[in-house]
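Form 7-S
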Amino acid sequence: MDNESRIMNHENNKIRKFTDLNTWKEAHKLVLVIYEETKNFPKEETFGLVSQMRRCAVSITSNIAEGFSRQSYKEKTQFYSMAQGSLTELQSQLLVAKDVGFISVEKYREIENQLIICHKLLNALIKKSKIIHNS
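Output:
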């Protein structure tokens, strides 16, 4: 299944709320993984890397939700682009966490794969929004 097809639930289900978007669902999985993994970080990182990573992850799903509620293509893509920015920021923080030994290389790769899925789905959501806007 290509990325654009994964955006919509094609079993004759209309997308009625942001939680129906596969993009949001995959980003939500990422949030849950980040929260779970950062529980194991050193206590002195609670207000440092832990807080930053969690805020970034939540920002991704929040911006997808806010973009979904916007009417214009320009506004939608503005929020979806902010979600992309938060994804990239989280990717950078994830590298730091791996490099300082807070997460294993295996866990890093697992989370990175989820980040890649989210990036692709967000790109496809932006394209799909443009197609819908132009039709």
